[in-house]
């Protein structure tokens, strides 16, 4: 039996029931694929359901404010996906009259849509014979064929894409692409796959040569940089607090945060904060800061390791505080703002009233 037939037979017996598999409409499929970039289905599914409820059509998503989109996305990570999602929704709604492109080539022109996502939408919605290659596909193909070319190398990306196209069932590319991704997610798992019940076991090079745990191969990751973040939580008796909106090109762009002081090493006292202050926060404010968490919170990002501390400053009234940056805003509805997960956890732990 051919490789693709074995996969499809397995899929028809084992496929999970997922809401975006019940349609060929491009909007929910595009939405799900953007959300599932670098995200497991069990984590992404609740977000998909929230978004579909809040924005049932691409026009609804296009009309929403970016702040609302980021708030709903909060906790899913890789926030550039949300910003690109919103940008593309407005482009499709207002420039394309709500009609998504219908070919792989044109789909790739959408912001936030790369090779994998364009292949998925083109095959799932329009049955275009283009192969998907995601982490699950890399793993399944690498093990089955015994390929040790690093999957994150230029050579590896080209080699696996060529192989995937060769194996594609061109008569039913939608089912085949779903099958190989589901196979990698459920059967050919990253750790300790159950090879005893695998339908591809007999011809799997990795299984025969005891290479399952060592494949696929990856080049070493970029060195992770460490940073110390000190959030200054300035609040009054009515739980009004100062927030600022992040700018620049970082992954948390346009999310909100408390005033932030970055330091080269851990700050233990308010004097340490004063030494590290590069935002011209008033010295009298920083001298009143008391440390909320003596042990820093470790927060891991793709190429960053953050050590986070929160400092509390209680004042009589926020609008009486002088010499603060004009970028700060006052709010007592902190739960309505999209913030990074590490800040959201602090908000919940501190017990702000809702």
UniProtKB/TrEMBL annotation:
CDD domains listed in its UniProt record: ENDO3c, NUDIX_DNA_Glycosylase_C-MutY
Keyword terms, alphabetized: 4Fe-4S, DNA damage, DNA repair, Glycosidase, Hydrolase, Iron, Iron-sulfur, Metal-binding
Cofactor needs: [4Fe-4S] cluster
All residue ranges annotated as the HhH-GPD domain in the record: 35-186
UniProt cross-references to Pfam families, sorted A to Z: HHH, HhH-GPD, NUDIX_4
SMART domains, A to Z: ENDO3c (SM00478)
Keyword Kinase included in the entry's annotation: no
Ligase found in the keyword field: no
Catalyzed reaction equations: Hydrolyzes free adenine bases from 7,8-dihydro-8-oxoguanine:adenine mismatched double-stranded DNA, leaving an apurinic site
UniProt remark on cofactor binding: Binds 1 [4Fe-4S] cluster.
EC number(s) from the headed UniProt entry: 3.2.2.31
Entry function: Adenine glycosylase active on G-A mispairs. MutY also corrects error-prone DNA synthesis past GO lesions which are due to the oxidatively damaged form of guanine: 7,8-dihydro-8-oxoguanine (8-oxo-dGTP).
Family: Belongs to the Nth/MutY family.
UniProt-listed NCBIfam families: mutY
Name of the protein described by the UniProt record: Adenine DNA glycosylase
Source organism (scientific name): Mesonia ostreae
């Amino acid at each position: 039996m051919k490789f693709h037939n074995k996969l499809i037979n397995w899929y028809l017996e084992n496929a999970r029931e997922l809401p975006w598999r019940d349609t060929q409409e491009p909007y929910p499929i595009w939405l799900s694929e953007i959300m599932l970039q670098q995200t497991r289905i069990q984590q992404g599914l609740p977000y998909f359901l929230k978004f579909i409820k809040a924005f049932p059509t691409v026009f609804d998503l296009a009309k929403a404010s970016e702040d609302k989109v980021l708030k709903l996305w909060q906790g899913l990570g890789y926030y550039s996906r949300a910003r690109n999602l919103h940008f593309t929704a407005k482009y499709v709604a207002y420039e394309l009259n709500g009609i998504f492109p219908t070919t792989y080539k044109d789909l790739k022109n959408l912001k936030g849509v790369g090779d994998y996502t364009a292949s998925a939408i083109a095959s799932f919605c329009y049955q275009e014979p283009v192969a998907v290659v995601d982490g699950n596909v890399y793993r399944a193909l690498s093990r089955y064929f015994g390929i040790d070319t690093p999957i994150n190398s230029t050579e590896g990306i080209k080699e696996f894409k060529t192989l995937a196209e060769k194996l594609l069932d061109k008569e039913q590319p939608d089912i085949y692409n779903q099958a190989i991704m589901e196979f990698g997610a459920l059967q050919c798992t990253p750790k300790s796959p159950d090879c005893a019940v695998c339908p591809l076991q007999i011809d799997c090079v990795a299984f025969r040569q005891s290479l399952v745990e060592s494949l696929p191969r990856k080049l070493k990751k970029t060195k992770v940089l460490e940073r110390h973040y000190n959030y200054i939580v300035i609040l009054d008796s009515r739980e009004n607090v100062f927030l600022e909106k992040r700018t620049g090109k970082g992954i948390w762009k346009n999310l909100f945060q408390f005033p932030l002081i970055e330091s080269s090493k851990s700050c233990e006292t308010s004097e340490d904060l004063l030494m590290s202050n590069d935002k011209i926060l008033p010295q009298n404010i920083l001298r009143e800061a008391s440390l909320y968490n003596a042990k820093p919170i470790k927060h891991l990002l793709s190429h960053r390791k953050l050590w986070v501390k929160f400092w509390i400053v209680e004042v009589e009234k926020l609008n009486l505080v002088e010499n603060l940056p004009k970028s700060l805003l006052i709010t007592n509805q902190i739960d309505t703002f999209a913030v990074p997960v590490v800040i959201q956890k602090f908000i919940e732990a501190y017990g702000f009233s809702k």
